[in-house]
Design brief:
2 copies of one chain form a homodimer. Chain A is an alpha+beta fold. Helices cover 36% and strands 16% of the residues of chain A. The radius of gyration of chain A is 20 Å and the shape is globular. At the A-B interface, strand 1, helix 1, helix 2, strand 2 and helix 3 of A face strand 1, helix 1, helix 2, strand 2 and helix 3 of B. Chains A, B: Keywords: Cobalamin biosynthesis, Flavoprotein, FMN, NAD, NADP, Nucleotide-binding, Oxidoreductase.
Chain lengths: 233, 233
């Protein structure tokens, strides 16, 4: 702690225009399912996006992530078949009107996007005891999600769309990607160029669920049991 | 799906300068423990940061997050005491040299930062069946982590530092924040203005663990069992 060479430096300041750029990317980011163009992604652009992911925070500097780049059409066909099976199970869980609405939603772009990225978490990386993960074993999964969110924002700034497909039986993906036991898929992403994009979350635009008021989500000091959002369930 | 009013629009394009701003924020973001200044955070600045969090993606548009703003010194003292107990347990898990090094690290800014934010996930929000969460129950936790990462980046662009404290027994935080059974703390964050900041991850600067090469983390098509990073464990 006392080594004078190990010390913080003057913090980078950001201008109002730079802040605006960040907020614009955050607000323009969407979960894309149907707007993918077939054009391949230039290697340098993909590299920048993956570098952004790799700059994410990680518990104990564990960097537990890997990025499996899936372009092969046969493998994407197999992944799509696994999605279709799980999605049929999912659809059956909804009742009546909601089930019909669910059936009408397009929820993935596995085949339409030219690139799929499986972002994985190697739960054994860093050894048995990882700083910061001693009391919450899932911190490595959370670190991997931070990498996904960085990737998503970088992709949007590059003109790429990203869609996160979560409707899989985990064991199906594990088999299709030959994952060892210590590795989990945290996010299966569809990635490709887009010309068009929804301006609000697609599930909001399609009336699936409304946007909550931020005011109802902020609490002072401790949980407020009369929070208005509770009644939204 | 056929309603012509529900359609994507021309996607916002970002300039090279805007992309640069995003990448600079991503690369300047640090986990801050010790550089917090006591100055309060202006309400409009805090609002922008929380709006960025609330613009995160969420499974089934569930928006499962809440933001508990903890300024009260007595409550922060109690949270700090809970951290100290857990951290003593954590320290005992490391052996020899590593334990001494661990003991010398400052891992939180609970009392030094003027604001703590508990970002929670309400696992019951959105009802029993949530679109996209049918096959992975933890997607709501992952959505909440996306909100944390948005918050973290926005804070950095505003000149604020953020530190994520994960060394708690979950039941301690649950009691201190009066959380109902359906709500989990995903991230306990320390937030405050900073003048100085590490230019690389602090655990890297202090020699705890080295940065992995991105090349070793990228795989084509499926898991490669001879991946070089495996040997880093």
């Amino acid at each position: 702690m006392s080594d004078p060479l190990i010390a913080p430096e003057r913090a980078r300041q950001f201008t109002p225009a730079e802040r605006r750029a960040l907020y614009d990317v955050i607000n323009a980011r969407r979960d894309v399912r149907n707007e993918f163009l077939p054009d391949p992604i230039a290697p340098d652009m993909l590299r920048r996006v993956l570098e952004a992911a790799h700059a994410a925070p990680s518990v104990g500097f564990m960097q537990p992530w890997n990025f499996i780049l899936i372009r092969n059409a046969a493998r994407r066909q197999a992944v799509h078949a696994a999605f279709a099976e799980a999605n049929a199970e999912a659809q059956a869980m909804f009742d009546g009107e909601k089930r019909n609405k669910y059936a009408g939603l397009k929820l993935e772009g596995i085949l339409k996007s030219p690139l799929n990225i499986a972002v994985t978490c190697d739960r054994s990386r860093g050894g048995k005891v990882v700083l910061g993960r001693t009391h919450n074993r899932d911190m490595d999964l959370y670190s991997t999600v931070c990498a996904v969110q960085n990737l998503w924002l970088a992709a949007r700034a590059e003109g790429l769309g990203v869609g996160w497909v979560s409707i899989f039986r985990q064991e199906d993906l594990r088999g299709l990607l030959s994952l060892p036991d210590t590795v989990e898929v945290v996010a299966y992403l569809c990635v490709g160029h887009i010309d068009e994009c929804f301006t609000q979350p697609e599930l909001q635009a399609r009336g699936w669920r409304h946007k909550l008021s931020l005011d109802d989500l902020i609490m002072d000091d401790h949980w407020q049991s009369n929070a208005p959002v509770e009644r939204d369930v």
